[in-house]
Sequence to fold (174 residues):
Amino acid sequence: MNQFRINYSENFIQLLEDFAKNHSTEDRKTFKQNWISLRNKNIEIFQKEISQIQNQGYDGDIDKKIFESIRYYYRKKVLNQTTKPKNIKTKLCGFSREIKQKMDIHIKNIVQETEYLVSPADAFDDFCRQSREEITIEVFRIKSKVNQELEPNEITIKFKKSYKNRYYKFYGTK
Fold:
């Protein structure tokens, strides 16, 4: 049976993670040069790890496999940790009954007025154009209830999801 996944020793993993952390933003050519330099400096560690991997039954090009894992796994892992802040849940309150009713009325009207199936995205865009004032009032209401700084993106996504869910519920019952 072929083995595709390689399990490295803890010391070797630490070496790979440290290298990835220090060289995560480099272009491929510079990254490869630094990788070769690291490999030459730590030849004993690499030889020990290579023999251990061969004993586990891996028969492919181990150098290539290690480089690919450092370049495409460990490096990406470091980049994702540094660029993405930890998910901090913001508590959003629900929409008012008035805005929900406004959404429902808009959905019923748009479905009845058109002979073809309107996409939820197009219907939402039309709702936003027609109900700009009500949406603004609702945004201020939500911001005042949630005592945190909200990104406009969060509220937009919430509006979109709510509208599309109502849209699909209406089409499901039609």
